[in-house]
Design goal:
mainly alpha; five-stranded parallel sheet; three-stranded antiparallel sheet; 14 strands; disordered N terminus
């Protein structure tokens, strides 16, 4: 809860009365009473709303006991008096409206030893409360008192818990989680805080036990829906706070096991058994022991989260992803029968694989989809579909497709592993025992699809590809040829209409012959004719008869498809045709309207008109509002048109140059917003085309990540020409957030390697120096420090030879960082000192601040704590003076480390938390994770072992897939220390053993530290 806005004012949840309910006959139709067990607040209390305090009193009365005992009128806090007076108020509130006698209240406040004036004191407290609240609320009756209210946070929590129970029973786990989270959020610190008396003490213990029960229920649901990775951190802290609570230990074991951390799960059991024996002299519960046995046996059912469905019969996810079959499907009867029979044999027998091959546009996808729909009854457990985009140069990644399939089959994101092999294995396991049809469309080759084949009896796969997959073992191969003349005419007739074709049959035969009997060509031609009611079939036939309007190679390979597109291209206005040709030159998967305007050198509104016209002709697709894309084959055709038709020929290069300028200019503005005052933007290659401007950093970030694939494609495409190479390198450097965030790290690195190789080929020292510095940053982020140091070292002579100061500055800074990581402190100090001088030489204050903060860490590592703090403060002040939020967070990170070592733990935590908020907001996963790691070190130094373990667990989660193994090893080392502090020494050993394996493989000096930690266990 955010405590900076003052205490929570409980908001009473209300429910409208149902239509026709009698609201005035003695039974409140809106009455809601607690159905939760063990709460003991009574029943029959109207809890549907607040207490009307009367006119002019400022709103309804509300009360809270799940924290300090408080009262509000509307949003105004009311005085509740002395501790004993609050004790009286609490005793009345917790009786749920029932009358409490004076003797009961005296016992509640003072127990067996009340003061001599106890009765008078109770009356005084009651009188004061009546004045503070309202006479109608606190009433006297039968020699006692009753508090008539319907607005109490405890009652709200009970309602929410009851709703959660019902939702969970009905299978709505998400709804149950939400209700339980709402209920738990009502607690505001210690229940009945500072309220004296035996009654308050009893209620405090009871309500804390109920809170823990609700929390366990919510965590149980978390695990049921697959959120085990997120639950580990919270459960680690809870088991530390409540070490003897076995249900929490059980949930932690299960969460670790489902996260692939079997050894740690077993270590939790060992720690628990030892603790119970030492503290209570008992063994773990049978439930906990059975869980340990199932984990030891590697129970696969235990590893699977519960399906999101009704508990009584949780149905498996049954994907139905097949695209719609075309209503005018024509011919191919023998193929339909052959493939249908083959698929039917999959039921109860070995997996059936059929692979359709043929030239583009021959109708492979149409036939496969039609056959798949016909065979659906044989695959009642679902049908999966994917376009593998094998016809282009950016085929779909197999691991990405597996992730999509696993989600469609009901696997939660948190349970999907990272590696291709692990995903493929889980995919096959998930399909085991099911009958599922998988349609793999537009495959590149057999290697792409092998991991996507089910591999189990009862399942089947249909594959389409341009190549014949002779290396796909066991596959039934089908070569799909063009249509027969009769089938082609039949298809044409179905689209155009029998009436128009019957009167011009010969002309129709001429049309389908000119299309080469290729289904896609026929469909395009027929659709155009159907859309033009004034045309006759003969008009279309005459157009197709002109060989200048179609390619001679109509029956050869991909050129057969080009012939069909020639029809549409020939109908375009000159401006539309130019747009079609030039936009097809860009390599990105799609293109934004603003980028298209740059390619065409036109205003946005004119560009949009042209693009929408191309969409209408089916030569372009609208991928999303403001984004457009070509089909792979249409893009190839557009480029062929550009080679043939664009005049002057240099316009192609000019169009791509404008696109590169657009991206570079815009990325430079994103960089400048994120890093105000950074001199890199002043040293970028000049651009002739303006990019976009942004109003704030979030808008700029959104653009960068949305354009990542297109931007990187443009960089790679521009690397080939010496005239665009330097701008391409600068574009990648200005977009370094893509590499640091982890979202596009692999593509970013591959693109950097392309630029480095191109720069070497063109002997461009400036481009090579900058490309090497980009790659050094990529290696650093990935934890490959030797490679980072190598590239930073290689960059310096190139930069000096080209008189390029920026990479020279950053080369020294980068080499200093690597030296720091490798404990070469003297070298590191020399590099950072050089970097500071170089940055100051070009007036780059943010760069100077970076080197100062890094130098601070050298001083810290060599025992110069005071100077380390001073250097970090100096660097942070420079960042702050320039409004440099992101790099200011880096400064606070360094300052937090120095303050930690100086034992200023409160100040260190404050600096690190502030830094982490900025990193998270800026999507910098690496630094967010590392800051969590450093916070865990602060907690460890402050002996807050449970919080240290929680932060270390969160760091592992955030750093998954980024940062490299060295950083993971460091986090595991600290996690082990924290776990030892909360008595989970067995689990700590598992963490240290994993860390030792990492450090030994890397040859890292940290291995010695871990061996020392493991020594006692090894000796035992």
């Amino acid at each position: 809860m955010d405590r900076e806005d003052g205490p929570r004012v409980p908001v009473q949840r209300t429910r409208k009365a149902s239509a026709g309910a009698d609201a005035g006959a003695g039974t409140d139709s809106e009455e809601r009473t607690s159905t939760s067990t063990g709460t003991g607040t009574g029943t029959g209390v109207d809890t549907s709303g607040g207490t009307d305090a009367g006119p002019g009193t400022g709103g309804e009365l509300r009360f809270g006991v799940l924290g300090p005992v408080r009262a509000w009128r509307g949003a105004e806090a009311l005085p509740t008096g002395s501790p004993q007076q609050r004790a009286l108020l609490a005793a009345l509130l917790l009786r749920g409206g029932r009358t409490a006698t004076a003797s009961e209240l005296i016992d509640a406040l003072w127990g067996e030893e009340p003061p001599s004036q106890a009765l008078a004191a109770v009356r005084t407290y009651a009188s004061r409360l009546r004045k503070a609240l309202d006479p109608k609320v606190l009433v006297s009756e039968s020699g006692g008192y009753a508090l008539r209210t319907r607005a109490l946070d405890l009652l709200t929590a009970q309602e929410l818990a009851a709703e959660a129970e019902k939702l969970r029973a009905s299978g709505d786990r998400a709804g149950a989680r939400e209700r339980l989270a709402e209920a738990l959020a009502l607690w505001d610190g210690e229940v009945l805080a500072s309220v004296p008396g035996p009654y308050a003490e009893t209620q405090r213990a009871r309500l804390e036990e109920w809170r823990l029960t609700l929390l366990e229920t919510r965590l149980d649901i978390d695990l049921e829906v697959g959120a085990h990775a997120e639950a580990v951190s919270e459960l680690t802290a809870l088991t530390a706070a409540h070490p003897l609570r076995e249900r929490l230990r059980e949930l932690l074991m299960l969460a670790l096991y489902r996260g692939g951390r079997q050894a740690e799960a077993l270590a939790v059991y060992a720690d628990t058994r030892r603790l119970l024996a030492d503290e209570l002299g008992v063994d773990p519960t049978p439930e906990l022991s059975r869980l340990q046995q199932r984990i030891l046996q590697g129970d696969t059912e235990l590893a699977r989260p519960v399906e999101e469905a009704a508990p009584a019969a949780a149905p498996l996810a049954r994907p139905a992803q097949l695209p719609a079959t075309v209503p005018d499907f024509t011919g191919r009867a023998s193929f339909v029968r052959e493939l249908g029979d083959r698929l039917a044999t999959a039921e109860g027998h070995v997996m059936a694989v059929s692979a359709l091959a043929g030239i583009g546009g021959v109708g492979k996808t149409t036939l496969a989809v039609h056959v798949a729909h016909e065979a659906r009854r044989h695959f009642p457990d679902g049908q999966l579909y994917v376009d593998l985009q094998g016809a282009g140069n950016r085929a779909a990644a197999t691991e990405t497709v597996l992730g999509s399939f696993l989600r469609a089959l009901g696997t939660p994101d948190s349970a999907i592993p990272d590696s291709l092999d692990d995903r493929a294995a889980l995919y096959r396991s998930t399909l085991d025992g099911r009958r599922v049809l998988v349609l793999l469309d537009n495959a590149r080759d057999a290697a792409q699809i092998r991991p996507l084949l089910p591999g189990t009896a009862g399942c089947a796969a249909l594959v389409t590809s341009r190549i014949r997959m002779v290396d796909l073992a066991g596959a039934h191969l089908v070569d799909l040829d063009v249509m027969s003349p009769e089938e082609a005419l039949q298809l044409f007739t179905r689209i155009v209409g029998a009436e128009r074709v019957q009167s011009e049959r010969e002309a129709a035969l001429d049309v389908v012959a000119a299309c080469g009997f290729l289904p896609l060509a026929i469909r395009i031609a027929a659709s155009r004719l159907a859309a033009r009611r004034t045309w006759t079939v003969s008009v279309l036939a005459a157009k197709l008869a002109d060989e200048r309007r179609r390619l001679d190679e109509l029956q050869a390979g991909d050129l057969a498809v080009k012939a069909t597109f020639e029809l549409g291209y020939g109908q375009l206005e000159p401006a539309q045709a130019r747009a079609f040709r030039l936009l097809g030159l860009a390599d990105g998967p799609d293109i934004s309207l603003a980028a298209a305007a740059a390619v065409l050198d036109l205003p946005l509104w004119d560009t949009e008109d042209l693009l929408e016209a191309l969409v209408d002709t089916s030569l372009l697709e609208s991928a999303a509002p403001g984004r457009y894309r070509y089909h792979d084959l249409v893009r190839l055709y557009a480029r062929a048109c550009a080679d043939r038709d664009e005049q002057p020929p240099t316009e192609k290069e000019a169009a791509l140059s404008r696109l590169l300028d657009f991206y570079l200019s815009t990325a430079a503005r994103v960089y400048a917003i994120e890093r105000p005052g950074d001199r890199l933007v002043d040293h970028l290659e000049p651009t002739a085309y303006e990019g976009l401007t942004f109003t704030d950093r979030h808008e700029a970030q959104d653009w960068l990540y949305a354009e990542a694939n297109c931007l990187l494609a443009t960089v790679r495409q521009s690397a080939a020409s010496p005239t665009t190479l330097r701008r391409a390198v600068d574009l990648l450097w200005a977009s370094l957030d893509l590499g640091e965030s982890g979202a596009n790290s692999r593509e970013f690195e591959a693109t950097g390697a392309v630029l480095r190789d191109a720069a070497r080929a063109h002997a461009d020292a400036k481009a090579e120096g900058r490309a090497l510095m980009v790659l050094a940053g990529v290696h650093h982020t990935a934890g490959r420090f030797a490679e980072a140091d190598r590239d930073a070292e290689l960059a310096l002579p190139h930069a000096d030879r080209a008189e390029d100061p920026v990479p020279a500055c950053w080369s020294a800074n980068a080499r200093g960082i690597i030296a720091l990581y490798q404990n070469r402190f003297a070298e590191g100090e020399r590099y950072f000192t050089e970097a500071i001088e170089r940055f100051r030489g070009i007036g780059d204050e943010p760069g100077e601040a970076s080197a100062l903060c890094n130098l601070s860490r050298i001083h810290l590592a060599t025992g110069r704590t005071s100077s380390a703090i001073a250097l970090a403060r100096q660097g942070t002040e420079i960042y702050d003076s320039m409004g440099h939020a992101l790099r200011g967070a880096n400064g606070r990170y360094a300052l937090g480390l120095a303050l930690t070592q100086d034992n200023q733990l409160g100040a260190a935590g404050e600096q690190l938390r502030e830094a982490m908020a900025v990193f998270a907001d800026s999507r910098q996963r690496l630094w967010e994770g590392m800051t969590l790691f450093r916070l865990s070190e602060v907690d460890l130094a402050a002996r807050r072992h449970a919080q240290a373990a929680s932060n270390a667990e969160m760091a592992l989660t955030v750093l998954r897939g980024i940062g490299g193994e060295w950083r993971r090893g460091n986090v595991l080392t600290v996690l082990g220390r924290a776990l030892t502090g909360i008595g989970q020494s067995g689990r700590a050993l598992v963490c240290w053993q994993e860390a030792l394996g990492i450090f030994e493989e890397l040859g890292a000096p940290e291995a010695d530290e871990v061996r020392v930690l493991l020594a006692p266990a090894t000796a035992a």
